[in-house]
Design goal:
By secondary structure, the chain is α+β, with helices and mostly antiparallel strands. The chain has one domain: 2-Layer Sandwich (Alpha-Beta Plaits), CATH 3.30.70.930. 36% of the residues lie in helices and 25% in strands. It has 3 helices and 4 strands; from the N terminus they run βαββαβα. The chain has a 4-stranded antiparallel β-sheet with strand order 2-3-1-4. α1 runs antiparallel to α2. The longest helix is centred in the middle third of the chain and has 16 residues. The chain starts with 23 loop residues before the first strand and ends with a helix. This is Thiamine-binding protein. InterPro entries: MTH1187/YkoF-like, Thiamine_BP, UPF0045_domain. It holds the Pfam family Thiamine_BP.
Length: 121
């Protein structure tokens, strides 16, 4: 059944490998530390490396790293990125904004394309 972007509810696909519902999630993840000085980029980079090493589709911008995958995978990678810094003894901040949309995939690239199409009309 084709995906209807305007439908309020979608069929929830089942992951054939796990037999569990696949809850596609796009998340904006921001991880940082407090008390490490005026420049936190070396710490942020460590968290971003954890996210990139996860293998999930991702892209980093000035404030967040956007990630897409199953809800459980996204939550896991966000937690691991935060732990990377917290386990060094730093007070760690994790900001997580998620759009959980069953039935959809590829939204990390499709959402910006849709906005560009709308703006070009």
């Amino acid at each position: 059944m084709p995906i209807d972007r305007n439908a309020i509810k979608q069929e929830v696909p089942i992951d054939p490998e796990t037999g569990k519902p696949y809850l596609n999630t796009v998340a904006a993840i921001q991880v940082s530390v407090s008390g490490a000085g005026s420049e936190v980029s070396p710490y942020v980079a460590q968290a971003i490396k954890v996210i990139r090493d996860s293998g999930l589709p991702q892209e980093t911008n000035a404030l967040f790293t956007d990630v897409e995958g199953d809800l459980d995978e996204v939550l896991h990678v966000a937690g691991e990125a935060a732990k990377k810094l917290a386990e060094q003894g730093y007070r760690t901040s994790l900001v997580l904004h998620m759009d959980i949309r069953p039935g959809f995939t590829g939204q990390l690239t499709e959402k910006p394309k849709l906005v560009d199409e709308i703006l070009s009309e």
